[in-house]
Amino acid sequence: MREPNCLSRVHRLMDVTVELHCDKCGSANLSLPVDGDEQATIECNDCGERHGTLAELRSELLACAMEHSAQALRSGLDRLP
After folding, report:
1. What does the pLDDT read at residue 55?
2. For 30-44, what is each residue's pLDDT tens digit?
3. Is 10 a member of any domain?
4. CB-based contacts of 1, cutoff 8 Å, min separation 6
5. Is the pLDDT score of 15 beyond 60?
6. Which residues of 10-47 are buried (b: 16+ CB within 10 A; e: fewer)?
7. Do residues 48 and 63 make contact, with C-beta atoms less than 8 angstroms apart?
8. Confidence class of residue 58 from pLDDT cuts 50, 70 and 90?
9. What is d(CA 58, CA 49) in angstroms, rounded to the nearest whole number?
């Protein structure tokens, strides 16, 4: 499925840093797929817990980034006279 143009621009304009932790053990030692396979599973290297696919992670991160951006915009607008 092709992304809408607005999402393509967001990918190019946003530089977001995140730290991922295992829901089960709290470790940040997760295996992400190197080849970019969207259906590859993300797993904790310490306890083996599975955390969904790369596609699911990307979708969740984009949603979080968009929500954060919307909140920052609303906050900025609230400060206008």
Report:
1. 93
2. 998 888 789 999 999
3. yes
4. none
5. yes
6. eeeeeeeeeeeebeeeeeeebeeeeeeeeeeebbbeee
7. no
8. confident
9. 18
Place of tokens 């997760």: 30
- In terms of DSSP H, where are the helices of 1-81? 5-13, 54-78
**Domain assignment present for 78:** no
Q: Which two tokens stand for residue 32?
A: 């992400």
Q: For the chain, give percent helix, strand, coil, nearest 5.
A: 40, 10, 45
Residue 80 lies in a domain: no
* 30-31: strand order across its sheet: 30-31, 41-44, 50-53
| Count of structural domains, the chain | 1
What is the domain extent for residue 52? 5-73
**Reported confidence tier of residue 2, pLDDT bands at 50, 70, 90:** very low
